[in-house]
Design goal:
This protein is mainly β. The strands form 6 sheets. The chain has a 7-stranded mixed beta sheet, with no helix packed on it. The radius of gyration is 22 Å and the shape is globular. This is Bilirubin oxidase. Belongs to the multicopper oxidase family. InterPro entries: Cu-oxidase-like_N, Cu-oxidase_C, Cu-oxidase_fam, Cupredoxin.
Length: 493
């Protein structure tokens, strides 16, 4: 019998074969890329974008979207799509209570759209797939930053192009802090590190090859745009912001030593209680913030960040930490009994001063059901048997309402996974197949993973902006081929 992994492989190949020409698939499968030895290149840290000017309550930035040749593989210039010439794009560090205003200039020959994933923003700045920046024109996006501190990320969202655009480089980290949280004894500065992880396929000339839904044939793992790099760390406590910026690759992070992470945050911000975990699932578009403690590690030790869910051995090891010398750090840390030992704290172990949140702000008044699947007849990925139609609203929601959405992955026979992302809101995952979701995977979330056959219920309150927003699978190759809908928040009657 086929095991689950074999079924997933066959399902993906079957889906691709339905949609994409045989010659295109054969070409992508046959072209061997240049070989890069794992842990032979240093990790790059994306530059932090500096404001062009600031006022008492607003920081202003200028960014340019353009094609750029960069070195990704050693000694080879690769054509990429970039924000400000960086792959991935520059990191934006924003602060709650201060507005961020970004003027995005589109230097591409076609339209472009920029979505700030996980942000609570008005529809005019959401980066709707049907609201593009024309070639040679600019658009101003305004982000109020009136939400919890969180690791967000921005990326292209142009209709029918988002999959390839993000794959070729159009994404970056947006790190929102809250002055209230500054009292927390968390690593900062050089010890607060964003890691944007993704897979890629290169041809023999070192150029990116994009074939939709071809996750089995993207053999190279990139971290901050570098292939399986090494990271020279000090004997300190590090805060790593894990961002899955891939189209299709699923990560289950672990450390080669077996030591646990301390997960402190999910998609939309801090967990109510940090939790020690040996493995952390982060699927496309999901984020997790973790603390990794190198203070007691002997100098000269090498530790690998690994993907326990890798479908091939060459993709298992992602990043190598090389621990340097020096004294250990004496700065006070979050006091959680049992960490970094293996015991997981209980949900009742509150931490003085840790940010609190209330995930359920109202009683749900409506339940909706959305079924995700590959339509074998049309070769399209659909929701409720419908592909994306920009003129159709799939859910009309009264402002202030709390709703439960039941999301179903109906691709059991083909073994295809999906994720569901809602723009505008952070939600709570109530249960999966009738069982409560673990607290560290329940809230705050803006993207939820769905294995084949999963029935997941989420609860969200739509109490900020009015307007029309997308919801879609964030396996971006699926969204590109129609697995997307729209909800519209309207005034309460």
């Amino acid at each position: 019998m086929l095991n689950r992994r074999d079924a997933i492989k066959l399902g993906s190949v079957a889906g691709a074969a339905l949609i994409f020409p045989t010659k295109q698939l054969a070409s992508a499968l046959s072209d061997d890329p240049p070989e890069v030895r794992p842990f032979s290149v240093p990790l790059s840290i994306p530059p932090v974008l500096k404001p062009t000017r600031s006022t008492a309550d607003t920081d202003f930035y200028d960014m340019r979207i353009a094609e750029t040749e960069l070195e990704i593989l050693p000694g080879i210039r690769t054509r990429t799509l970039t924000f400000n010439g960086s792959f991935p794009g520059p990191t934006i560090r924003a602060q709650r209570g201060r507005n961020t205003v970004i003027r995005q200039f589109n230097g591409l020959p076609g339209p472009a759209t920029v979505h700030l994933h996980g942000a609570d923003v008005p529809p005019s700045s959401d980066g709707h797939p049907m609201d593009p920046i024309a070639p040679g024109q600019a658009r101003v996006y305004r982000y109020p930053n009136d939400q919890r501190a969180a690791t967000l990320w921005y990326h292209d969202h142009t209709h029918h192009l988002e999959g390839e655009r993000v794959y070729r480089g159009l994404s970056g980290a947006y790190l929102l802090s809250d002055p209230v949280d500054a009292r927390l004894p968390l690593p900062s500065g050089e010890f607060d590190v964003p890691l944007i992880l993704r897979d890629a396929k290169f041809d023999s000339g070192g150029q990116l090859v994009f074939v939709p839904d071809d996750f089995l044939n993207r053999p190279t793992i990139l971290v901050n745009g570098r292939p399986q790099p090494y990271f020279e760390v000090k004997r300190k406590l590090y805060r790593l912001r894990l961002i899955n910026g891939s189209n299709l690759e699923m990560f289950k992070f672990r450390l080669s030593t077996g030591a646990p992470f301390l997960q402190i945050a999910s998609d939309g911000g801090f967990l109510r209680v940090p939790v020690a975990r040996h493995e952390i699932d982060v699927w496309p578009a999901e984020r997790a913030e973790v603390l990794v403690d190198f203070r007691s590690v002997p100098p000269g030790t090498a530790i690998a960040l690994q993907n326990a869910a890798a479908l091939s051995e060459n993709k298992r090891d992602i990043l190598q930490f090389r621990v340097g010398g020096g004294a250990s750090w004496s700065k006070p840390e979050i006091a959680i009994p049992g960490w970094p030992r293996a015991r997981v704290p209980s949900a009742r172990e509150e931490i003085p001063g840790w940010p609190s949140n209330d995930p359920l702000r109202g009683r749900a008044t409506k339940t909706r059901r959305f079924v995700m699947r590959l339509d074998l007849g049309s070769g399209r990925f659909v929701i409720n048997d419908k592909g994306f139609d920009p003129d159709r609203v799939d859910a009309t929601i009264e402002h202030g309402s709390t709703e439960i959405w039941e999301i179903v992955n109906d691709d059991v026979a083909l073994g295809i996974q999906h994720t569901m992302h809602l723009h505008l809101v952070q939600f709570r995952v109530l249960d999966r197949n009738g069982r409560p979701e673990p607290a560290y995977d329940a809230y705050p979330k803006d993207t939820v993973r769905l294995f084949p056959g999963d029935v997941v219920r989420i609860q969200a309150t739509f109490d900020s902006y009015l307007g029309r927003y997308p919801f879609h699978c964030h396996f971006l190759d699926h969204a590109t081929h129609s697995m997307m809908g729209q909800f519209e928040v309207v005034p309460r009657r």
